[in-house]
Amino acid sequence: MTDALQRPRPETGADTVRILVCASCRAVGGEPDSARPGAILAAALGAALAEGDNTDIAVETVECLSVCKRPCTVALTGAGRWTYIYGDLDPDAGAATLLTFARQYRETTDGIVPWRERAEAIRKGVVARIPPLPLARTP
Ligand code: FES
């Protein structure tokens, strides 16, 4: 287990947009002991969150999002919003792109950012989207 996985969960409010980063994926072709790409991305996100308008955006590390062959893998979620899972994010350059997308996501009520407004890495990296919970029941 890495240090990133041992961090306590940040305090989050009901409107907080949460970026969950898998810090367990191994780099494709990387050495077993090399830094995990997700840990690098999470650290970059943490540093970026300390600057600018990032109210109600939090980053957390998790152990696995079941997208293990596509590091970096992340989930973006918020109360009442669709949850998105992404893969193939660059550990070094992905933080700025992801944080921009998290701000766009935060400005929505349902989590759906128009496709044309999403960065290319976000468009290409999408793995899944999950409806807001609890699901509305049909009669
Ligand atoms: S180990 Fe990262 S998604 Fe499974």
Report what the structure shows:
With 139 residues, this protein is an alpha+beta fold. It has one domain: 3-Layer(aba) Sandwich (Glutaredoxin), CATH 3.40.30. It has helices at residues 37-49, 94-106, 120-125, and strands at residues 17-22, 57-62, 74-77, 83-86, 126-130. Strands 2-1-3-4-5 form a 5-stranded mixed β-sheet. Strand 3 (74-77) and strand 4 form a beta hairpin. The radius of gyration is 15 Å and the shape is globular. The termini are far apart. FE2/S2 (inorganic) cluster binds at residues 22, 24-25, 64-68, 73.
Percentage beta strand: 15-25%
Q: Largest sheet, if any?
A: 5 strands, mixed
- Kindly report the name of the CATH homologous superfamily: Glutaredoxin
**Total domains:** 1
Which stretches are low in confidence, meaning pLDDT under 50 for 5 or more residues running?
Answer: 1-8
User: What's the CATH C level?
Assistant: Alpha Beta
Structure annotation, total helices = 3
Average pLDDT works out at 88
Category from helices, strands and their pairing: alpha+beta
What gap, in angstroms, lies between the N and C termini?
Answer: 46 Å
Instruction: Name the bound molecules.
Output: FE2/S2 (inorganic) cluster
What's the total number of strands? Answer: 5
